[in-house]
Structures are given as C-alpha cells and as structure tokens.
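Changelog note: in this version the structure field was regenerated for every chain. One regenerated record is shown below for reference.
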Amino acid sequence: MLVCATFDRSNASKIQLREKPIPSPIQIVPLTGLPEVAPGDDLAGLLVEAVRRQRLVLKPGNIFVVAQKVVSKAEGRIVPLDSIQPSERAERWAALYQKDPRMIEIVLREASSVVRMERGVLIVRTHHGFVCANAGVDISNVPAGTASLLPENPDRSASTLQEQLQRAFGVHLAVIVSDTFGRAWREGLVNVALGVAGMAPLVDYRGQRDIHGKILRATVIALADELAAASGLVMGKLNQVPAAVLQGVPLPQGSGRGRDLIRPAEKDLFR
C-alpha cells in the first residue's frame, strides 16, 4: 500500500502573489524499499528502481528530496573511527564532557571555524558555510565504528542526481539533498536543504503587495527548506525511507543552489 502525506494549500501563501490564487494540493510520496546504501552504489539507479516499483508517474516539476546520509554513503563519505588520531585539543574537550575524542577530532577537521564550544555542545561553521552542531558528523544509521560526513559539495551532489533522474524519466525534475539541523532559539530538529538543483531555493516577495495593498519589504521564503522539512513527515528518522517525491508544488521560475540559503557573515547579527 502506498502511504503518502497530502497538504491542502488553499489557505497558504502562493509562490508568486501575482498569480491567480488557485488552491493546489501537494502530495509527498515516500520512496520505500531501498536497500542499505554502500560506498560506490548507484544512488540514482536505486531511486529510479523505487519509483518504478511503486508505479509512480513523474511529471515536470516534481521534486526529489534525498536524505544526506544516503548521499554521503554512496559518495564514500564514511570514516572509520579507528583511523582517526585525536589532537590534544580534541582529547581535552572529550575528557571534559565524556565524549569520544575521535569524533571531536573529525568535527574539528570538518570545521572552518568554531562558533561555540561549551557545555558539551560543539557548534561550528563547516567548509560549506553551514553553521550546525558537530559539523554534520553523525554515527547514526552507519555501521558500528564509523561516522558519516556531509557530502563534499551538496549542490554538486544534487545536480548530479538531477541530471541522472531527468535522463531516466525524460522530464524536468528538481532535487533537494536534505539533512536534520537544530535551530537557534527553538527546540526540536527539522530537515533543511543542503544541496539544491533544478529550482529556486528562495522565493522573494519583496516589492509585491499583500492583500491590504502594503508593499512587502523583507519577506524572502526559504522554499527549499520548507519542502525538506515537509518531506521529513514521511521520511522520518527510523522509517528507513531515505527519499521522497513531492508532486504539485508550484515552483517559481529560476534556479539556484543550496548555497544561496546560507546567510553571508556580513549579514549575520548573531555570530
């Protein structure tokens, strides 16, 4: 049985306010039955097989949201912990907060700078520009004794998958590589977009008028993050569903990258 989540956007803001506001349902379909992904696997091929197995008919503008973990696995971004020699800094920090010094060392290596390092919490800026806990280094859903790293270039990963999937299905598709991040000032984790291909990750409402005629001056919606978060409803953390297809999303014109979602340091008031 195909399980999916459907959202009625009849009361939601439209992608472009100038368009006629026609209610549009959105369907999020989990891609089930994918095997455990290993380094070197053909991830696009596995996604194609899952789509065909579920007899899902893809249409232009459909969006694949793919979990970072399977992308990292396929790209070989898995590190054996026994191969890591911790630095003195990692050893000190680990001893202070009962952490694995090898994990701390990997995080420090993946970081371009440390934002906060206190109370057992390590928040860093990665070489990609992401500000997140532990540089995205994770030991869940990987073989014991190993850790996964973020893809070297999530936008390139998304673009490669997009090209392969479009070639297989013959329609324009978008791809989002997602990961679970915490958020400043709010409890809980949500999925966000790391890599984006085939769509604009941001929707800019500035200069348009609201229903009362007021000009919007600061509203830029992180559409790719919203779609990544919505896909988390069917992908989950324990469901072994590493990908989903979104149908019915009215994509705005244009394209961009996941990197467009990173706030430049000169605009960051909190670091």
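Spot check on this record: The chain is about 25% helix and 25% strand. The CA atoms of residues 265 and 271 lie 8 Å apart.
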